[in-house]
Amino acid sequence: MVFSSYEFLCFLPITLLGYFLFSKLKNGIYQRLFLLAASLFFYAYFNISYLKILLISIIVNYLLSKAMEYFKFRSASLIDSSTKQINYLKLIFIIGIIFNVGMLGYYKYYDFFIENINMVFGTNFVLQRILLPLGISFFTFQQISLLISIYKNEVKKVGKFIDFCIFTSFFPQLVAGPVVLHKEMMPQFTDESRRYINYHNLAKGIYIFSIGFVKKIVIADSVALFVNNGFGLNIISLPVAWVTALSYTLQIYFDFSGYSDMAVGLGKMLNIDIPINFLSPYKSESITEFWRRWHITLGRALSSYIYIPLGGNRKGNFRTYLNLFLTFLVSGLWHGADWTFVLWGVLHGICVILERMFKNILVYIPKAIKIAVTFFIVNLLWVLFRATSFQEAAKIYKAMFNINNISFSRIAVLTADGIVNFPTIIAVAYVLGCIVLLYFIIFYCKNTIEKSKNVIFNPKSLIFISTLFMISTVHLSRLSVFIYFNF
């Protein structure tokens, strides 16, 4: 089920109530079993067939992890046969990587590669039209991360099967991240002090969740109307093209940061600290900084498992630039099986490389100009990210710089929803007003994490949270999934 749905608003209180009622029992196994059952039910609600794939991933990766743990221990305790044990360890590690990459490749990239093979070689291999299981990129990345951590001796103990299942399937971050690490989550799941209800954490979690709820339901889904209408037009004026691009830049920010806030809030309600995934990315002074603030846990994973193993910045400038290029290439491909995503990732990588090459010059540029230029680039590249084809992206780009077609009245078309027809001047004012207001919030207001640090829970904050919930609930009738569910 989706966080922003009536079903989830029923699921959440039942889950919280049941979880903390089981904390009354001395043996924590029943509480963990309940949390696991709730997480599996949450995932199966999307599509029962998804559950089989998740369970296979969990079981296979647990067995591989325990086998690696065994040979790791054996190689440390049996000096005479340590080389043989290490060879077994490496073999299991390779099998684990092949299994996970193979599963992700089959479900996410099979049709993409077959389609391109057919196009290049003129073959007629049949496309499978495979349904992409929700969250497979996230929980597979999580499993690969654990195998690497065991191999590098960063994780000593995998833990019990029930805890491993919860680590992989924990519903607040299962389908769209953040990409969490075993060492930061597993100790929390096994910490006895976190079993019991903490009213401060509960209140703080509801506060963060509510802000994320509004970001998704009220803001992102409202702006989505402008985006969908803009990309659907055949003839676009320059103002309409820019409004469409700026609207998608708003939509994806409030959609994904809203999801991440909701995930953090849900974790906090259950006394689990989920990593922060956003930190005001549009305030970045460079593309490099943007990737330290946008989808933080993915950037951390790509750096740890792609960039650094390739050599990072340790082998000279050329290798550094090549490593950055390859890392962002993988980032683009990770986001989707389409050449538009690949090019989007590559262009971000080129920007980061150029920033490194001219870093001595960039330090003299005023901060405001650097933020403006960075935002301009990010906004342009989001068009490519949103477009379903290069042709669609080219249509928007061409209109954005076509000074021969400047018609502000056409902006009114972006409000068309088939229900209400506003007069042109009111529709234009509405669209532009929304965009100006939302960018003011982004650039001049504190982000969710900053707000939650100093929040005081009193009648005023209770009214604030209640108001957010009421406004969001009213908007639930226009249900839509989170953008990053597609990845």
Total beta strand runs:
0
* Helix and strand element order: HHHHHHHHHHHHHHHHHHH
Radius of gyration: 24 Å
Large-scale geometry: globular
| Secondary structure: helix percent | 55-70%
Query: Which structural class do the helices and strands define?
Result: mainly alpha
Strand composition percent: under 5%
* Total count of helical runs of at least 4 residues: 19
Average per-residue pLDDT, rounded, comes to 89
Domains (count): 2
Oligomeric status: single chain
> What is the terminal separation in angstroms?
16 Å
Largest sheet: none
Uncertain runs with pLDDT below 50, 5 residues or more? none
List keywords for this structure.
single chain; 487 residues; mainly alpha; 2 domains; 0% strand
